[in-house]
What we know:
Number of helices: 0
Low-confidence stretches: none
Structural class: mainly beta
Strand order of the largest sheet: 1-2-3-4
Distance between the termini: 45 Å
Shape: elongated
Amino acid sequence: MQKLNFNINGKHYEAMVAEIEHNVAEVELNGKKYTVEVERSESVVSPVAAPKPVAAAAPVAAAAPAPKKAAAGANSVTAPLPGSVVSINVKVGDAVKAGQQLAIIEAMKMENEILAPADGTVKAIHASAGQAVQQGDAILDLA
């Protein structure tokens, strides 16, 4: 947890940044909790600050390439936010009704139900339990 104090136009603000996962952060500002989307930008370094010596790190092995993400089509059910797939609750060929739970995505330690937007049949599944997804990634296709 990181505590930040700042003044804007003479008004004092105290912010507590509890957790940042992907680009979503839990922030408490003057006692009120917010879930915010963080935009990554270049770091700004004060010209007065002297650099601290950094110990050499051991070489890191190259990561395996990420699985190719399926492009979202007109009938795709997509991730509404970045997170990790907890479960896919249907199979290819299953008939589903509007509002039926199709999958669960965990984001910021909260489980989010992914519901069928309309009646249909599961045509393809693009995600699996444990897979990280970004907002807009195709989870499955309905026909």
